[in-house]
Amino acid sequence: MSQAAKTNYILNLYPTTKLLFTLFIALSVFIVPTYWYAYAMLPVCLIIAIAAGQGKEFITLVRNGLLILLVFIFLMQAFFYPGAQILWQAGILKITQEGILYGLNMTSRILAIGSAFILFFRITSVKDFVYSLEKLGLPPKGAYVVLATLQIIPEMKKQTSVIMDAQKTRGVETEGTMMVRAKAFLPTISPLILSSLASTEERAITLESRAFSAPVKKTHLYEIYKTKHDTVVRIGMLVALLILIAGRILL
Amino acid sequence: MNSVIKISNMSYKYPTGKVDVLKNINIEIEKGLLYAVVGPNGGGKTTFCNVLRGFIPHFYRGDLRGEVLVNGKNIVESTLGELSLSVGFVFQNPFIQISGVKETVFEEVAYGLENLGVHPDEIRTRVEAILKLVKIEHLRDKNPFELSGGQRQRVALASIIVMEPDILVIDEPTSQLDPQGTEEVFEIIQIMKEKGKTIILVEHKIELIAEFADRVILLHDGEIVMEGTTQDVLSDEKALSYDVMLPQYAMLGLELKKRGVPLRKIPITEEQAVEEMNWWMAERGVRI
Ligand SMILES: Nc1ncnc2c1ncn2[C@@H]1O[C@H](COP(=O)(O)OP(=O)(O)OP(=O)(O)O)[C@@H](O)[C@H]1O
Ligand SMILES: [Mg+2]
Q1: Which residue in chain A is spatially nearest to B106 when comparing CA positions?
Q2: B177 lies in the same domain as B222
Q3: Is B168 in the pocket of ligand 1 (CB under 6 A)?
Q4: Which of A168, A172, A238, B43 could form a disulfide with B219 if both were Cys (CB 3.0 to 4.6 A apart)?
């Protein structure tokens, strides 16, 4: 992480604290019945993202990952949710009050939970997250698989373009319409899969040569710690959760 | 003799193979010596290394007969984890020797020590020292995936020797290196030897073997056809019939001998050659 990251309180929180926050949001939108609360979680996440210096990336991910899905779901509900209070009708198409309400409820929750997870992965490095999981008892093999998979993805992307170029020089069309690209997909992907299968065996041997299964307890050169900020945030979330539940029961 | 590895009547066949790739191997590896393993391609050198590290039979199954003792313990009864404490193995192919979970060369080299449970402070000191020794300090913050073949080979070597195993098995560590890099790797191997490590080195560069190795093992078609001191093996014409080059000085010496020049011994290094020639000329009353 960069020097700036080291001084950012939000980025410096322990990964499980950040995960708890995400779960807190996911839970709270089911406790609080109004959709405007759930919608309000988007700006909340955005503010946190901005404070962590990740505002732009956050917005882009929400837009690319959630927007179309939400619009689609909303329209589906508005048009097809059964209801009596008809607001607009044309032939068999009708929009009902209930449909709109249901659509708002559903999309607001998906948006809130989606944003919370996007926020989590924007402000938590995979390395930190896996480290905390390992501390929680995830076996080293599991931790390795998660880390290796995530590190290998950018490598795979590079390899894909190398293979694509190779296929192009052999006359395989790799650009153009969907159909053309679909046809190019198989010859591109199969060497990739074959080579990664072959390297699994080698990878296992490499790990062994680096004492992966040595009968001792591993240490970590890179360590992260919980600080008093984590405690404060966790207590804060607990209090907020209790208030929400109390409010739900009393009101 | 203080032997760290003892192999008796060992033969091995790969699970997919039809014939034995190693045939009736008998050898004792003495502590603190540098053994060079030579032989033509496909002779079984890498397979031999895999046996020493226990990857055969623990990883590659196949059919292993005979007995292989490492530090007195049969490798069949040891686990790979136990063997990792005593035998370090640097592979022939530098492109696969990356953990795949580390973002910098520094962390990559530290990985084995983390697995060995070394305290982080000590890890830092040891990694620093090795980066310096292997001359890759300038690569410390680079992504291991983005290294050249030669750079990877050095990182691979560093990653293993930092773990300080007593026995080092090194399979063609200089295949991707330029002459300068090769020279440097041999210097590192020399330093390891001075630290008392037992080293089994597969290498084709015969001049360097002549200079650095204590003993030479010649593997041909899965058999140890020659074994002995570097001087004996590398001055013996018989090696040529097993497709192994002799050092140019040995070739010169053999040629001279054939032509009736009475050398005391066949030189295998430049130094010896100069010495022999001086002696011979002095014998004949030539002044220089
Ligand atoms: N995984 C394997 N499965 C089956 N056969 C193998 C395997 N690896 C090597 N062999 C065979 O074993 C024989 C010895 O191979 P080995 O790799 O040990 O040779 P080498 O002396 O290291 O050669 P080189 O100088 O090319 O590295 C070869 O005939 C090879 O085809
Ligand atoms: Mg080999």
Answers
A1: A221
A2: yes
A3: no
A4: B43
